[in-house]
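Entry 12.
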Amino acid sequence: MSGLAVQAAHRAELVPFIDEGLGNSSYLVPLGDGRALVVDPPRDPTPYLELGQRLNLRIAFAAETHLHADFISGSRELAAFGADILAPRASHLAAAHRGLDDGEEVDLGGLTLRALATPGHTPEHFSYLLLDGPKPLLLFSGGAVLPGGAARPDLIGPEQTEPLAHALYRSAHQRLSDLPNDLPVYPTHGAGSFCSAGADGQRTTSLGRERNENPLFSAASEDAFVRTFLEGLGTYPPYFLRLRIVNQRGARLFGVTPPALAPLSVDELRRHRAAGAILVDVRPFADFARGHIPGALSIALRPAFASWVGWIVPAERPLVFLRAPDQDQRDLVEQCLKIGYENLVGELEGGMDAWRAEALPESVIALRQVNEDLQGAPLDVRQASEWAGGHIPSARHVELGSVVISAGAIPPGPVTIYCSHGGRAMTAASLLEGQGRQNLAVMDGGFEAWREAGQPMAIG
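Predicted 3D structure (tokens):
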């Protein structure tokens, strides 16, 4: 996790933990009596335990706003170190926890946590109001209210999407109506999260700001909000459809020491691949372009790595990896674990150098500059919202998550693929290469380089 910051909130000094890759936030609140509350923690308990140790705090409570679809919850991990789990009763968690009902309050030793039923993002969703006596201090809104938007209601099933969108509107207008405008709001989801819709890039907000600017509050009517909100929803990774159940049942505990990747010889790597393992090459995309093991899948290790593994790689398949010497193995493992990918067989010891030492075949993918001949209509693999904001006029659009199933619609012949910078485009190129396509190239620097070079653009 990165972006650690401290922000004062009356008697409570709230510490946000920002996961830039998933676009999510979690929070630690010292309670003034040597204990602390954590809200919506992801799987790895280390950052909270280490901060608690530095501040001489015991993590006493781990509160869940809802059953998360985009990451494995860390509440059970913190419970193994002594925390009590607080969650909506309707979550039906298998783990030992205190199930809360709407309006129920938890004494935190001077501060009070009040559960507010705010369904919409999910049916069981709660927001938590932190109080000092009768005075509201702040609202942990989960996905009920985000800066500029709200969390999407379509992750349960199509039959519940519209009813949950209506519930989202009513939660904001009815359940939060008596709270003051100056109340600070701390959501879980934010810009960059595939759970969010309309989020404007801010991590926190105030209730008054949202009442003035957020369509959730400012839409002409409930029906108008629902219609517009549902029209603006994009795609999301398929692993979202299974993690709610994983979090409900409880995932395997790893504690503060995630498993290390086993070192594999070249022969062992080849045997695992022959048995069905997927080779994920996590080196920077330019390194992959210069030479890679044939059939490898390129997903560069970066903050968004977990999201694209979860989108592209089948959950049941064993994984083997190739990384550069300066890339952090623990980061790689933790990103896989936080979205529930645990079948991590090992990594090629010695990396690409070991493969080359055996004089084995390798493949290359050309990197093209924006001023070079793109050789036919380029392929844009960004999200639909990015495409609508500007694209190369002659380009064909296929989101990265749909490249495999849409490969037959991509015309034969040379193709140059682009995204915003290059990483997603190289993933797409590796997928198409794995299906036997040749004459593939990636635009170095992607659409941002195209825009900065003053090249022509189409909008919409």
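Annotation: The CA atoms of residues 23 and 190 lie 5 Å apart. The mean pLDDT is 95.
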